[in-house]
């Protein structure tokens, strides 16, 4: 039986879940029977809509909806840290954006899987998009990396495509597209996902440059404590035990941070707060 194949982006969690209403009724394109005209039409719609928006979370929603045409409900985007070991937000950089199963995100945090994620390693030496199956089958992939793939597949992501995004200054971002099925991605699908990822990356860079100087909200000391432990992968119950407060109080402070940062989840809020330098891990 063919082994399960999967990857994950590194130490990041949280996502903007809202999809654009303009794309909500878009027909799904199945890889095995898609025509060139259908691919071109959906890609044209994606370009048209992304060129009209500037906010990073809206851009991510549009990309997420476009990826659904290729049966890819799971996406992740982030930039490598300067040591190129993990995907973490860097002050002044675009925030990491992630749409992955919650349980897999928690597992990734808990096990520090960024240290064994072969997608990170592969992306550093590849200039074009690659299928995760290529990495799984590569002779340089270790048994430990394959076990990581197999475990991740149990969380619902069994195949996908990664797109390395190398910038002129030597920095690197990675975009992952994943699906629950084990079917292989066709060449045309890989090409369009790579083009969409590149366009998204360029639009994100423009969005970040235009938002430089944006003020971050003030957080109370307790809000900072709660969101810091959230960033470290702790649940509300665990944070309550650490800080000697109730779970309801923890949730109250975390909801305040989410509201103040105008984000959609506790982990997205944590990423934004870390990226702004308000807290450090």
UniProtKB/TrEMBL annotation:
> What biological-process terms (Gene Ontology) are attached?
regulation of DNA-templated transcription
Ranges for domain HTH luxR-type: 212-277
- InterPro entries assigned to the protein according to its UniProt record, in alphabetical order: Sig_transdc_resp-reg_C-effctor (IPR016032), TF_LuxR_autoind-bd_dom (IPR005143), TF_LuxR_autoind-bd_dom_sf (IPR036693), Tscrpt_reg_LuxR_C (IPR000792), WH-like_DNA-bd_sf (IPR036388)
The UniProt keywords, alphabetically, are:
DNA-binding, Transcription, Transcription regulation
Molecular function via GO = DNA binding
Q: Do you know which PROSITE patterns this protein is assigned to?
A: HTH_LUXR_1, HTH_LUXR_2
Q: Which Pfam families does the annotation name? A: Autoind_bind, GerE
> Matching PANTHER family, A to Z?
DNA-BINDING TRANSCRIPTIONAL ACTIVATOR DEVR_DOSR (PTHR44688)
Q: What is this protein called?
A: LuxR family transcriptional regulator
């Amino acid at each position: 039986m063919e082994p399960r194949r999967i990857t994950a982006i590194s130490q990041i969690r949280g996502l903007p879940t809202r999809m654009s209403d303009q794309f909500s009724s878009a027909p799904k394109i199945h890889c095995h029977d898609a025509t060139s005209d259908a691919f071109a039409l959906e890609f044209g719609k994606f370009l048209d809509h992304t060129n009209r928006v500037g906010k990073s979370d809206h851009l991510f929603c549009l990309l997420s909806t476009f990826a659904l045409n290729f049966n890819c409900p799971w996406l992740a985007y982030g930039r490598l840290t300067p040591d190129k070991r993990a995907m973490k937000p860097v002050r002044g950089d675009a925030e990491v954006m992630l749409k992955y199963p919650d349980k897999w995100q928690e597992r990734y945090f808990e096990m520090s899987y960024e240290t064994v994620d072969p997608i990170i390693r592969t992306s550093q030496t590849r200039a074009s998009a690659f299928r995760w199956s290529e990495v799984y089958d590569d002779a340089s992939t270790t048994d430990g990396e394959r076990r990581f793939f197999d475990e991740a597949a149990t969380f619902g992501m069994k195949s996908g495509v990664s797109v390395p995004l190398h910038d002129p200054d030597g920095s690197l971002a990675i975009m992952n597209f994943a699906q629950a099925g084990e079917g292989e991605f066709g060449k045309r699908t890989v090409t369009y996902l790579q083009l969409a990822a590149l366009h998204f990356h360029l639009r994100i860079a423009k969005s970040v440059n235009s938002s430089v100087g944006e003020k971050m909200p003030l957080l109370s000391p307790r809000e900072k404590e709660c969101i810091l432990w959230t960033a470290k992968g702790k649940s509300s119950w665990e944070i309550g035990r650490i800080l000697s407060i109730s779970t309801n109080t923890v949730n109250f402070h975390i909801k305040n941070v989410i509201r103040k940062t105008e984000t959609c989840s506790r982990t997205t809020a944590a990423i934004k707060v870390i990226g702004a330098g308000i807290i450090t891990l």
